[in-house]
Amino acid sequence: MIEVYRRIKDIRERIKKLKQEEKTIGFVPTMGYLHEGHLSLVRKSVKENDVTVVSIFVNPTQFGPGEDFSSYPRDFERDKELLEKENASIIFNPSAEEMYEGDYKTYVVIEELDEFLCGRRRKNHFKGVMTVVLKLFNIVQPDVSYFGQKDAQQAIIITKMVKDLNIPTKIKVLPIVREKDGLAMSSRNKYLNEDERKNALCLYHAVKEAEKMFEKGERDTKTIKDKMFEVIHSYDGVKIDYIEIVDLKTLKSISKIKDKALCALAVYIGKARLIDNTILGGSFEDLGS
Ligand code: AMP
Q1: 122 within ligand 1 shell (Cβ under 6 A)
Q2: DSSP secondary-structure letter at 178?
Q3: Which of 88, 138, 232, 250 could lock onto 52 through a cystine, CB 3.0 to 4.6 A?
C-alpha cells in the first residue's frame, strides 16, 4: 500500500528513517490530476531509486489573481490509484495551511530568468514555484528530483536555484509526453471543449514547423517565429501570449541560433492557457544539471 502523509512532521519522521536505512529517495513534485506526463517521471524515479515520493499540492502562491487556482482539476483518489500502480512509495499531500502556516513571510526569487516567457505575463508565478519547490526539497530531502521539459522555463529556473543555493539534489528533466495527435499532455487540457481540443493542436504544429525549418538549416529566429505565428493564426479561437526563441541559459531572445536554442510558446484557448516548446539543436542534457 502506498503511504500518504498530510503533515510535514509525519513525513519528516518517515524520511529520517529512510535516510537511516540509507535508501535513495527520488522525488516528483506535482499539482495532481495526473496523466502520462507525470507518470513518465514517476516511472523513471521508481526505476532509479529505492523510494519514490510524489507530492500532490496545488500551490496557491504560484497562481496570480484571476488565474485558475480554485478551478484547477483535483482528483486525489484517482491519483493515488495511479501512483500505487506505478509502485511509487509515498504521497505527500499537504494542505495550503500546512505549507504556509500562519504569518508566512519567506519567498525565493531569481533574478532575470523570471522576466521572460511565462514570467512576463505571470508575475510572481516563479517566485511561488521556487518557494514551494525549495520547501518540498527541504521536507523530502531527495537524492534525485524529476521535472518535465513541458515546463521548460520552470526546469531551467529550478536547475539554476539548485546550483546557486547548493541544494543537495540532482535535477533530471524528462521529455514532453504527448497525446497520439501531438498535443502535449496537461492537466489543463481538461478545460478544452471538443472544438477547442482540435484547435489546441496549433501548438504542436507550430513547434513541428520550427523543428522542420531548423533541420533544413534556417537559423534566423524572426523567419521561424513568423512561420509559427502563421501556423497559429490558421486555427480558430486562439490568442497568442508569446512565441519566443531564446538562449537556453539566459532565456533572452536571440536573433540568430548559433548551435541550440529554446523555442517556446503560450496561447489562450477558451479558458485554458497552454504551453509547448522544443529545444532546437539540442536537449535538456545540455543544461548540465
Ligand atoms: P504539474 O502537475 O503541472 O505541476 O506538473 C508536475 C511535473 O510534471 C512538472 O515537472 C511538469 O513539467 C511535468 N509534466 C507536466 N506535463 C508533462 C508532459 N506532458 N510531459 C512530461 N512532463 C510533464
Answers
A1: no
A2: B
A3: 88
